[in-house]
Amino acid sequence: MVTPIYPAHTIEAKREAATGIFKAAPPFKSLSSVPSNALAFGALLGIQRFSCRSMELVRAKEDVYNDLFGCLTMPLYYRLFMNTDRRLVLHNRAVGSAVILSILYASIIA
Q1: Cα separation of 77 and 62, whole Å?
Q2: Cα–Cα distance between 12 and 73 in angstroms, integer?
Q3: Close Cβ partners of 78 (under 8 Å, ≥ 6 residues apart)
Q4: 12: closest CA among 27, 3, 2, 22?
Q5: 9: buried, middle or exposed (CB in 10 Å: 19+, 13-18, 0-12)?
Q6: Which has the closest alpha carbon to 67: 49, 81, 84?
């Protein structure tokens, strides 16, 4: 498992929200949290690479400043789209739907 975070809207997640005390989940406690965590961190890394490469294309230079720009966009993206459980769930559904639709498009239509 990537991170020891319980999936949103589970009993453990609600308990953490009520008490305000974070208690890490044991490894492989809940395999249902793996897709949720993978979508969240995959999206953050995708945003980092997308913004980094976009800056590289705009500047026509490949240097460390592009990577720095990409790393600075990740917290902004997180604060905007993933700061609450509801937004995180909606975000994961949107990203998951986009991934499934792109796979369907690439394998069936194209």
Answers
A1: 23
A2: 30
A3: 44
A4: 22
A5: exposed
A6: 49
Alpha-helical segments (H) within 1-110 = 11-19, 33-59, 64-81, 85-104
Provide the token pair at 10.
């589970």
At residue 104, the pLDDT reads 92
Backbone φ, ψ for residue 5 (5° rounding)? -110, 135
User: What integer is the mean pLDDT of 69-78?
Assistant: 91
Answering whether pTM is above 0.85, one says no
Which tens digit of pLDDT belongs to each residue from 39-57? 778 888 989 999 999 999 9
Return the pLDDT at 27. Answer: 65
Task: Identify the sign of the CA torsion 56, 60, 61, 65.
Answer: negative
